Amino acid sequence: MTSAISLQEVLARDPVIGKFVDRSLTPPSPFRGVGPIRLVVLGQDPTVKREGSRGAITTVLNLDRPGSLRRYLEQLCTALGLSLDADVYATNYANVFFRVPPASLKDPDILGVAKRHCLPHLLAELRPFSDVPILSLGEPLLRQIATGSAPCKVREYWGFDPRWKRGETRALAHLPAGQNTLTREVFPFPHQPSANKAFYSGRLARYLAYMRSECSS
What we know:
This protein has 217 residues and is α/β, with parallel strands linked by helices. It has seven helices and five strands.
């Protein structure tokens, strides 16, 4: 399997996005629970907006320390009957630091260009967990893994209806293996800041129950 350092070097040599790769920072290590892995949590990349804090990120999603993102994922795992520290493997789609957060740029599309390099690496990294479902975080990531006519907005999987404030909802859904580049079941979740929005907070328990049911069937 290609290491994160090697992936960083490959991306740094890319003629389109190479100048956006920050080679001064070491990519964070994946987080792995101590037990058999039952859930993969997939983030986008480690490039937080605050440049000065990037060097302190040594583990994917900062799961080696207390914080709001860890609390969020602990809440999700508990509702799924899992333990974050025992049952979860967490990694990033593009596990390298960029000089700017990819979502802040439209031209070039950093993640889109990086896909041809990152996807093979990610598939190899996740091969030991071939039967494990994936919980994805955020819409920029979802756009990279959804295929065909699969929606690229998290809310579509959570039963969004324009009249949701009046109680109107649609069926819950997830990305089946045949509709994503990772070729396994993917359950899209909002990233932690968006999870506090009224639509998601009001639907969280229902979607977690749906995911738990789908993963146990």
